[in-house]
Design goal:
Number of domains: 1
Number of helices: 4
CATH topology: Porin
Shape: globular
Order of helices and strands: HHEEEEEEEEEEEHHEEE
Helix content: 10-25%
Largest sheet: 12 strands, antiparallel, barrel
Distance between the termini: 19 Å
Strand order of the largest sheet: 1-2-3-4-5-6-7-8-11-12-13-14
Length: 286
């Protein structure tokens, strides 16, 4: 769903603590009341907001010759029945207008399995670009699946997105992720290491309208614009974030490495890296 794997684990941990507390209170009551309380604890409604900063901007790990930073923001609502809706967007310091696009998202997802450590999601995204000419891909349908260990220490996921409007194409990714608890500040606050290895595939072309407006020489685009229509491995990304949970707040700081896969006509393709920072806040509405 829209949450990071780490945020889902955080919600599950808090629910388990509440269940343990209720069990202690009801240990001498009948089992029917106990099951009713546990069922209520598994119901939730949350609002999730986050703001993120990247000190460099790349296209699938490739340097387009643009020295610019970016800000991302998102605001989502999710219900325990699996429905979620939200809005997100991105701002780039070199673009004019700087706010590049707004994304409206709606979907459904849920957990399953004995330990609820399997999950799936289906969603639709509508992209609204500040530049009216950037309309090659205005819509996408997404499907995702993930599986992780009972304690969320290790997991894998796969996602597939179909983009369409004037053009059409596919993107999909395969992730391997983990959660290593470094420090426990108290019962509610933790510091964790959350490595993520992502393999990014795709067959959609590049929308260059915003870049063309900058009148910057980008030989990379001239060289590979046609070859991106072929489905292939685009990039391998390694994310190394440290996450600090402070009750309803989450602070993430990480360094990321891109290892782009050279496609047809690409030569001497360099690896890239960047720093990112994200602040998130969760509001429990139940």
């Amino acid at each position: 769903m829209f949450f990071s794997h780490h945020l889902f684990a955080q919600i599950n941990d808090e629910t388990e603590k509440e269940i343990d507390s209720i069990i202690e209170e009801l240990i001498f009551t009948d089992s029917e009341n106990l099951l009713e309380y546990i069922e209520q604890l598994n119901k939730y409604q949350v609002l999730y907001a986050s703001v993120g900063f990247n000190d460099k901007t790349y296209f699938l790990g490739r340097d387009l010759g643009l020295d610019q930073t970016s800000l991302t923001a998102q605001f989502f609502y999710e219900h325990s029945i699996g429905v979620f809706i939200g809005v997100s967007g991105a701002l780039y310091n070199d673009f004019d207008p700087k706010w590049d696009y707004t994304t409206l998202t709606g979907g459904y997802g849920n957990h399953f399995g004995k330990h609820k450590n399997f999950s799936y999601q289906l969603s639709y995204n509508r992209y609204i670009f500040s530049d009216a000419t950037s309309n090659d891909f205005e819509n996408s349908f997404d499907i995702g699946f993930s599986a992780e260990t009972k304690n969320s220490a290790f997991g894998v996921s796969a996602d597939l997105a179909y983009f369409f409007a004037k053009e059409q194409g596919f993107q999909n990714s395969f992730d391997v992720y983990g959660e290593i608890k470094l420090f426990k500040l108290n019962d509610d606050n933790n510091i964790t290491f959350n490595p993520l290895l992502t393999f990014q595939f795709g067959s959609e072309n590049i929308d260059t309208s915003r870049i063309d407006d900058l009148a910057i020489d980008t030989p990379f685009l001239d060289r590979v614009i046609g070859s991106f229509e072929k489905y292939d491995l685009r990039n391998i990304q390694l994310q190394l974030p440290i996450t600090i949970d402070l009750k309803n707040f989450e602070v993430l700081a990480g360094y990321n490495f891109n290892f782009p896969n050279a496609l047809e006509f690409e030569r001497n393709l360099d690896n890239s890296s960047y720093f990112n920072l994200r602040l998130s806040y969760i509001v429990d509405l139940k």
